Amino acid sequence: MLCLWLASVANVQADAPNTLAPLTFITEEYPPYNYLDNQQLTGVSIDLLEAIFAATDTPLSRHDVRYYPWVRGYELALSQPNTVLFSTTRTPAREASFHWVGPIAQDQVVLLAHRDAPIAIDALSQAIDRDLTVVVIREDIGAQALLEAGYPERLLVPAIDNRSALSMLTRGRVDLWAYSADVAAWIAESEGYSSDSLIPIHTLSESSLYFAINQATDRRLVTLMQQALDRVLAERPQR
Fold first, then answer.
1. β-pair type (176-180, 134-137)
2. Which strands, in side-by-side order, build the sheet including 198-214?
3. Residue among 204, 97, 194 at smallest CA distance from 149
4. For the chain, which terminus, N or C, has the lower number of CB atoms within 10 Å?
5. Any idea what DSSP says for residue 94?
């Protein structure tokens, strides 16, 4: 009986994943965490992922990460087993939709006004009362936070990506933009706007960024990735 038990344990261990090779990794433009620079993926999260690959002897690199618009990546992560989407804001509404590995970083999502069309509100209800239009990216945390707060869908204007959203705000096609404060500032400067051209007027959420993994994925892969991330972060110099 003991021999049979030992053999069973050995088989389970042999079947356990020892690299993250079965996973497909998807990202988008969300600087400074993940973005394209001279046609190569770079950023804080990309560097962290490559360190995780090294820690797990996974034969992958940043060149194996797929780069998609946010909506497509989000839909794939929801529907395809073994799919990892990053950097993804972890929220109560999304909690049951994914496995989570992280945190990667803290992120603040805000309503942004343009400097040339300043807006002041004390509460989200005032924006609703004034019928202020807000540009959002579908399935993004900004859009989800507004809908959860009861913001009328008729006042939400979808954009294809963050650069399109910035253009809509700066051209006066909308009143506000719901997005990460840090990422929006980075995008604005990369498009030639000054650092103070976008004005945060209301905070929608303060939460953490994670690797979001499809729910049908083997939990042992999730555990392996979390353990590797923990080791990588523990070995990094404290700032």
1. parallel
2. 66-67, 24-27, 83-89, 198-214, 98-114, 176-180, 134-137, 156-159
3. 204
4. C
5. T
Q: Which helix (H) or strand (E) holds 186?
A: helix 181-190
**Is the predicted pLDDT of residue 12 greater than 80, yes or no?**
no
Mean pLDDT of the residues in the chain? 93
- Calculate the alpha carbon distances from 15 to 131, 140, 216 in Å: 57, 37, 17
Other CB atoms within 10 Å distance of the CB of residue 203: 13
Q: Which two tokens stand for residue 16?
A: 């356990």
Please name the helix (run of DSSP H) or strand (run of DSSP E) that holds residue 112, with its range, or none.
strand 98-114
Q: What is the pLDDT of residues 141-187, one digit of tens each?
A: 999 999 999 999 999 999 999 999 999 999 999 999 999 999 999 99
Tokens linked to 108: 């603040």
Residues 6 or more apart whose CB falls under 8 angstroms from that of 212 comprise: 77, 84, 85, 86, 88, 90, 94, 97, 98, 99, 100
Provide the b/e sequence for 204-235 (b: ≥16 CB within 10 Å): bbebbbbbbbbeebbeebbebbbebbeebeee
Q: Which residues contact 16 (CB under 8 A, 6 or more apart)?
A: 220
User: Pick from 39, 29, 31, 87: which is nearest to 63 by CA?
Assistant: 39
pTM of this structure: 0.87
